[in-house]
Each structure stands twice: as structure tokens, then as C-alpha cells.
Amino acid sequence: MMSPEILLRKHKLRNTGCRKDILKLFQQEKAALAHCDIEKRLSHHYDRVTIYRTLNTFLESGLIHKVLDHSGATKYALCGHECSDIKHRHEHVHFQCKQCHTTECLERLEIPAICLPEGYQAQEVNLLIEGLCPECRKKP
Amino acid sequence: MMSPEILLRKHKLRNTGCRKDILKLFQQEKAALAHCDIEKRLSHHYDRVTIYRTLNTFLESGLIHKVLDHSGATKYALCGHECSDIKHRHEHVHFQCKQCHTTECLERLEIPAICLPEGYQAQEVNLLIEGLCPECRKKP
DNA sequence: GTTTATGCAAATTCTTTGCAATACT
DNA sequence: AGTATTGCAAAGAATTTGCATAAAC
Questions:
Q1: In this complex, do B125 and A122 lie within 8 Å of one another by their Cβ atoms?
Q2: Cα–Cα distance, B57 to A127 (Å, whole number)
Q3: Which residue in the set A74, A126, A134 is minimally distant from B128, CB to CB?
Q4: Which residues 59-98 on B are within 7 A of strand C at the CB atom?
Q5: Could you identify the residue whose CA is nearest to the C1' atom of nucleotide C22?
Q6: Can you give the pTM of this predicted structure?
Q7: What distance in Å separates the CA atoms of residue B1 and residue B56, rounded to the nearest whole number?
Q8: To which H or E segment does residue B27 belong?
Q9: Which of B109, B119, B123 has the CB atom closest to A114's CB atom?
Q10: Residue B98 Cα, gap to closest chain A Cα (Å)
Q11: Is strand D in 7 Å reach of the CB of A18?
């Protein structure tokens, strides 16, 4: 996994504490994170506004992507290696647990080809599967 | 198509003006509607709060469902005939145009079966396809 | 007549903007 | 040194809550 410093440099972003810490957090967590998750889990305190701005910067540079969610919360996750400057792969499959509301990227899963009606042109495909995650299924 | 009155009765909801008008609107529009779309398009004026409450009531009774969206706006659409009291089919395919931001349900499309990793249990599957709709593709 | 929905006011939450101080290159 | 980022204050959306009035059953 690439270090936050190198990742930032690669995307032509300045190496600030907030950005490094948030990137590190994304790399540690396999689950998608909402603004409030990030705010809570960062050991150093950063202003709420700074976190919003950092997330938007990361979105624009293609470091992270929005993760679909029925709960209304905006969640984000790191873009995989597939998303380089050259080629962006935007076939995201996410799984959200209905019990613990954790959302994870299932990077290995491929979305099968879908036949759109005449006239439609697909550019991005996102699949959200909701159900029970392994941990919650074990619980009573 | 079932009349709003009968549809409401079927879901054990009171037949009020606001509910009937909003249901009628959903039946006319094939696209998914956000709160603000509904507020704008209703001929009779209802309080913003009443519209919020109506949408939540419809959600709880399974008359409508949330439509996934990357823009952050919460959109809703009527549940198809497949969603009866007995059997709920929650395989939603939606298409959102990147130009006009219209979202429509593609009810006819089936989502191909997906193999989840060990331990995961799927209950609902949602597919969001983004791209250009037929109308926007014609434009220059 | 009883229960439920509506409208209004106000509170909460989420997100963005402006600007001076600070940190990065 | 010059430019971009941060924190703070405040503004602006989106959504929820409480309560009295009005409408549905």
C-alpha cells in the first residue's frame, strides 16, 4: 500500500497533517467512512470544515469516491489501484449491513454486463447490496 | 394503474389531499422525485414539513422506495406492482443522467445474480447506472 | 367522538462560504 | 516569498420535533 505522503504527491496535493491523517484512516479501515466517522476516529482534532474540504479535494483528485447509501449519510472510500490517472474503473460494488450499517467495498466482485434500453449510454455502474455481514450473522 | 384512493386504502392510510396529490404526482412522473421536485410540481401548496412526513409515511408503508443518488439528494420512486404486502421485490435498477440529473427506474431490467464472498447474506440489491439519457445524447 | 394529519414555529443537523492566520513548497 | 490550507464565525440547506388546529374515519 502506498504511503499517504507519496499518494498525495502523486495527485499533486500538498502534504498537510490533516490530509495525511485522513488518508491513513481510509487505508486502515476497509469500510466506507462518513464525515462524522472521520471526525470521531481521528486522534488529532481537525475542524469540521477542514474535513469537509479535505474530502472534497480528495473527491476532485480521484483519491476517494462516494459510496451509495440508503441511510442518507454520504460515505466515502478509497479508490482502488484500478483508478489511476490514465484509466478510471468505476464499477463499484458495495455491501452494506442492515444491522451494523457498515459499508464495505467488495473490490474483487465484477458487475455482470447489463443491457440498457435503446438510446441510453452507461458511463458508470454502481451496485449496492444490502443484507447481513458475516459478523452480524453470527450474533443472536 | 391503481387510483391513489384505493392505493392508500390498501396500505391502511387515511385518504388526505396531500397524500392523494403526491401519489398522483409519482404516478404521472416516471422519474424519481426529490422533496423539492414534489414541492415545486404540486399545484396545491402543502407545507414543506407535511411533504416530509408524507414521504416518510409512504416509505414506512412500502408505497415508495428511496432511489440511490450520487449527488446527495434523496429521491423517491413508486414501488412497482412487484412490491405487494406478501412479496417484496427489491431489485431496483435506476438510471441517472449525468447531464440533466434525471433518475428513472428501469423496472424491466433484471440484475444478474452476484456471488457474494463467504458469510455475507444479501437481502436487497440496487444498481445505479450513470451516463447519458436518450434525450441528452441527442443534444449537441 | 376519537384518532390521525396538517400547518406553523423553532430546533437540529449537514454543508458551504469568507476571511485572517498559519503551514507548505 | 508566494501560494495553498487551516480554523473560526457565520450563513445557508435539509430535515426533524412540538403543539394547537383541522380533517378523516
A1: no
A2: 27
A3: A126
A4: 72
A5: A16
A6: 0.89
A7: 22
A8: helix B17-28
A9: B109
A10: 9
A11: yes
Chain B nearest-CA distance from A69, in A, is 7
Q: For residue range A1-44, list pLDDT tens digits in order.
A: 789 999 999 999 999 999 999 999 999 998 999 999 999 999 99
Residues in chain A: 140
- The CATH number that applies at residue B21 is 1.10.10.10
DSSP string, A78-118: E--TT--SS----EEEEEEETTT--EEE-TTPPPPP----T
Residue B51, SS3?
A: helix
Contact A103, A76 (CB under 8 A): no
**Domain of residue B119, residue span:** 4-138
Amino acid at A135: E
* Helical axes A48-61 vs A17-28, angle rounded to 10°: 70
Cβ of A49 near strand D (under 7 Å)? The reply is: yes
How far is the CA of B40 from the CAs of B22, B51, B67, in angstroms? 11, 11, 19
Task: Indicate the number of domains in chain B.
Answer: 1
- For B100-125, write each residue's pLDDT tens digit: 999 998 877 777 778 899 999 999 89
Query: Scanning the structure block, which residue is given the C-alpha cell 445524447?
Result: B137
Cβ–Cβ under 8 Å, residues B79 and B113 = no
